[in-house]
């Protein structure tokens, strides 16, 4: 995973300081590309432990067209909690302590962080136990899964981009239109978070399937390792269904940034030596990409360095 570490070094050495919507501030570069040969191992970062199970459950959540965090919480996946939590604490229904700019404040105030954690625990409990509450505050709007599986078309019809992609890969592999987009200008303002990984194109050559992702905004320390693994996994799943081998995952970044409160963590990671990449194992009895459950997907040989914690910017 030298490609990823080189990106971190490139931002540290060449990035510019920019303000951002979270108030944290970033060091940023614009326009960067990484390439991963998927035949040489599964590209999961080894210089810090990355929770592959969370990558899997999130991707399957997208593929099912789901947009409610309740499904993820049932899988003990909490990577989207903050955006749903923000919706609740900004509503008239919320009666607890002031949560204005809770992400930044918690990162700088241990006492307030404890308060946020207490409110988050209440929130998660209500999502899992109260269906009406989950419907109101757990849904993130028309985010990735909605756009992938039911893009709003004409006359009330919807477009299943994933199903259409698989059909075209099987029947017209040389097409230059193997595209899925999550960026829907008509609905972007209704999303809890506009899609960061927003546009992907697939390519078939010599019996191998490759994928290029365009990511408009990339949180390089926390988000990008997940994004690399997620789209590498998606490429493997689609290739298997289409009876193709895997080729490359090409990751093209727009605004690639390190948050200023992640710099120490990045330094720690850059001091570590990368380890051998793991091997992806997919259940042999699944014929459709839509049939997979978390237990059907695993890694062999993943032996990373310890996890490095860092605050998320909301």
Automatic annotation (TrEMBL):
Active site residues of this protein: 196
Molecular functions (GO terms): thymidylate synthase activity
UniProt-listed Pfam families: Thymidylat_synt (PF00303)
EC number: 2.1.1.45
Keywords for the protein's UniProt record, in alphabetical order: Cytoplasm, Methyltransferase, Nucleotide biosynthesis, Transferase
Pathway annotation from the record: Pyrimidine metabolism; dTTP biosynthesis
Catalytic activity: dUMP + (6R)-5,10-methylene-5,6,7,8-tetrahydrofolate = 7,8-dihydrofolate + dTMP
NCBIfam families the record matches: PRK01827.1-2, thym_sym
Protein name: Thymidylate synthase
Species assigned in the record: Psychrobacillus mangrovi
The organism's taxonomic lineage, starting at the top: Bacteria, Bacillati, Bacillota, Bacilli, Bacillales
């Amino acid at each position: 995973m030298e490609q990823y570490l080189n990106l971190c070094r490139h931002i540290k050495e060449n990035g510019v300081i920019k303000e951002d919507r979270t108030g944290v501030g970033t060091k940023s570069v614009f326009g960067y590309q990484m390439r991963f040969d998927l035949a040489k191992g599964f590209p999961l970062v080894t210089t810090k432990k990355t929770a592959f199970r969370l990558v899997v459950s999130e991707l399957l959540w997208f593929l099912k067209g789901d947009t409610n965090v309740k499904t993820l919480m049932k899988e003990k996946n909490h990577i989207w909690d903050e955006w749903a939590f923000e919706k609740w604490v900004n509503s008239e229904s919320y009666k607890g302590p002031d949560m204005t700019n809770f992400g930044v404040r918690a990162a700088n105030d241990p006492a307030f962080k404890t308060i946020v954690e207490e409110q988050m625990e209440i929130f998660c409990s209500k999502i899992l136990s109260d269906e009406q509450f989950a419907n109101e505050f757990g849904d993130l709007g028309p985010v990735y899964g909605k756009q992938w599986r039911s893009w709003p078309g004409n006359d009330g019809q919807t477009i299943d981009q994933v199903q259409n992609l698989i059909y075209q890969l099987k029947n017209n592999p040389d097409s230059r239109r193997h595209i899925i987009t999550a960026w829907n200008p008509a609905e972007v303002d209704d999303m809890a978070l506009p899609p960061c990984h927003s546009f992907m194109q697939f390519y078939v050559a010599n019996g191998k399937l490759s994928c290029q992702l365009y990511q408009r905004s990339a949180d390089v320390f926390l988000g990008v390792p997940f994004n690399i693994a997620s789209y590498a996994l998606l490429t493997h799943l689609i290739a298997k269904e289409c009876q193709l081998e895997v080729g490359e995952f090409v990751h093209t970044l727009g605004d690639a940034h390190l948050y200023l409160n992640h710099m120490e963590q990045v330094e720690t990671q850059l001091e570590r030596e990368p380890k051998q990449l793991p091997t992806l194992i997919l259940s042999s009895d699944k014929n459709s990409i839509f049939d997979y459950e978390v237990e059907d997907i695993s890694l062999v040989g993943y032996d990373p360095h310890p996890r490095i914690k860092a605050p998320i910017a909301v």
